[in-house]
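Run: sequence + manganese (II) ion -> complex structure.
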Amino acid sequence: MTIQELIRKHQILAKDQKLLRAAFDYAQSAHAGQKRQSGEDYIQHPLIVADYLATWGMDPVTVAAALLHDVPENSEKSLDEIKKKFGDEVTFLVLGVTKLGQVKLRNQKDPTYIETLKRMVLAMAKDIRVVLIKLADRLHNMQTITALSRDKQERIARETLEVYASLAARLGMGEVRGQLEDLAFPIVYPKEYNQLVAQVRPKLQNAGHYINVAIGEFARIFRQHEIPITKIEGRIKHLYSLYQKLQRQEYGMDMGKVYDIIALRIITDSVEHCYAVLGTIHQYFKPIRGRIKDYIAVPKPNGYKSLHTTVFGPEQKFVEIQIRTKEMHEEAEYGIASHWAYSDHGKPKTGVKTNQKKLEWVRQLSEWQKEAVRRPEEFLESLRIDFFKNRIFVFTPKGDVKDLPEGASAIDFAFAVHTELGLHCGGAKINGKMAKLETKLQNGDVVEILEDKKLKVTRDWLNLAATSNARGKIRAYLNKHESGLLTRLTPAFMKRKK
Ligand code: MN
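>> structure
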């Protein structure tokens, strides 16, 4: 792909082309001579990531940030320079992606780690565009994963399944989720994957042919009834989603009970016509009892809207039908991203509307939060959104995450990492710059503690620490090492100590 192709494909407006070309040129020179593990020129990676984001309808600033997303990590260029050239908004997004890149699923057996990771990602969702760039980045990395060592493949694929795919699902990005899962599935569960493929292969043998026959027949019927149809397409169920369905008790690994391996999607122009399509289909093809679902009247918790039915279709075969408007379709495919940059007419909004876009975004996020209140069990199950209220997430230089209460300082961080590190913390670097130990930390800070083995813990430290964890450990140390201290302790403290 070239920058020219990207601009043409997404019909980028003239006024935005300059930004994208500048971001591209800058990234190209930063990655000059670098190759991907697959042997491709490195610049292809940010180009494809940018292409995904444009496909999801993201604004030019996000697409520019996508072009630049690996520059700080993989080159000598600094964030300061990016800031000078591209401004605060682009820099904020690039920085966010860089920080997320430092989070790694180290120990796959540790569920709290996964939870922390999810929360971290969500804390970053202060600007969800960061997460969307990261999802696009991961999608392309998964597509080129075979170039990596087996060990790395496994780690990345598992992380994709456990963190990124479930995030995509939570954001309503069904297609992205399906793609991420299907790329990770054969790597994480090779045996199960091969079994499933062998089982499903006969069912899919004639799928292409059948889909064409069915589309032809349905199109003819709708013409006859004069219902305007935007598009009919066939889709084959994503394999990992099929695998998960089969594992559910009511299916008991019986493929015969799964009716939606092949589905037809019928896109029409209005809600009214959605119901007209459903009614018309039922006139010609018998529906299966209990399989008619009205997700327009009652959307799924993630906002998914469509009418579903399964009928005895053409050639007497079961086929699932999903009926929706174009807006519902875009939302089902691109989820939260579909609200970002494009108007109803599928054309990019112009500059004056930038603020309106953002308002729309804020509205979407608040809807999302309301949803958490309305259907807490479904929502919190995957997100635990309440946990990260009043919490901040801070990185070690190696990319491990610590979550601390708001107001925590560098000294609190040191004790959160390890008691010994806390007791010997002589200084701190926050985001690479020297800082005082009492400096209050911000969400996303990278904190390095400088150890000083000769250091003596003093009572002043109690004033520098904000968390009960750190203060408790400082008191315990003073208690043990400063004999004179005991007499100065308040009775209340002595009591708590016991
Ligand atoms: Mn990348």
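>> summary
The CA atoms of residues 39 and 147 lie 9 Å apart. Residues 79-101 form the longest helix (23 residues).
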